[in-house]
Amino acid sequence: MSASNLPKSKVDSPVPSNSSNNHTSGSEQDPSQKPASKLETPTSANVSFNLDVKKDEKPSSKLCRACTDFKTWMKAQPAITQVEKKPVECPLDKNELGSNTWSFLHTMAAYYPDKPTTQQQQDMHSFINIFAKFYPCDYCAEHLREDLKTNVPDTTSRHNLSQWFCHTHNRVNLLLGKPQFDCSKVDERWKDGWKDGSCD
Ligand SMILES: Cc1cc2nc3c(=O)[nH]c(=O)nc-3n(C[C@H](O)[C@H](O)[C@H](O)COP(=O)(O)OP(=O)(O)OC[C@H]3O[C@@H](n4cnc5c(N)ncnc54)[C@H](O)[C@@H]3O)c2cc1C
């Protein structure tokens, strides 16, 4: 990022003040006074900073790195280093919930047995029906329950279950005006990765 793109407050480093329009101590303005020795270690007491801040802009406590010795500058770091912002963890909205849930459902189908036992087939039936009762987006769950009346889950194999979820998801996509997913690619998307190797 070029300096011109930076917010003003980041571009304008406060500088030790020698110019008359800065807030300076009386001793610095007195020409009879010895100028600050180069050997003198700058401290918050003997270095003043340009605090020419705009309205509503917090005065910066940044030391001017180029005008301060490294030791002093380093000492000031804990106070002025910006801690990287961690993304806030918040409850899911409908779309986040939907996307995460589809990821789980398609992945679950991708790892379902090729030849499930009768018990596994019944369990998957039960899981889908119970899922449709408790899915926490009320109207989404209602749509799914309606859908299940005419589109009975096919739990007879991994391939069939994956296709069933894909077509179920596509009916929701249709309802929402989203593009249809090519169900021949469901294993590439959810199990093996794309044929072009982009997931390898
Ligand atoms: C059971 C269920 C019912 C829902 N019902 C509603 C509803 O009634 N109204 C509503 O507003 N929202 C509903 N949602 C949420 C909605 O489906 C989306 O999850 C949400 O809009 C976010 O969409 P998205 O663009 O992030 O992608 P999503 O639709 O969440 O898809 C996530 C990813 O899955 C892949 N994908 C897309 N389609 C398919 C497919 N057919 N097969 C395999 N993979 C696919 C794509 O890579 C996509 O990026 C429902 C969600 C679920 C789980």
TrEMBL record:
One of its GO terms (cellular component) is mitochondrial intermembrane space. One of its GO terms (molecular function) is flavin-dependent sulfhydryl oxidase activity. Coiled coil: none annotated. The keyword Mitochondrion applies. Residues 90-190 form the ERV/ALR sulfhydryl oxidase domain. Gene3D superfamilies: ERV/ALR sulfhydryl oxidase domain. Transmembrane segments: none annotated. Its EC number is 1.8.3.2. InterPro entries: ALR/ERV, ERV/ALR_sulphydryl_oxid_sf, ERV/ALR_sulphydryl_oxidase. Signal peptide: none annotated. Its cofactor is FAD. Residues 23-49 have a biased composition (Polar residues). Residues 12-22 have a biased composition (Low complexity). It is found in: Mitochondrion intermembrane space. This is Sulfhydryl oxidase. It comes from Octopus vulgaris.
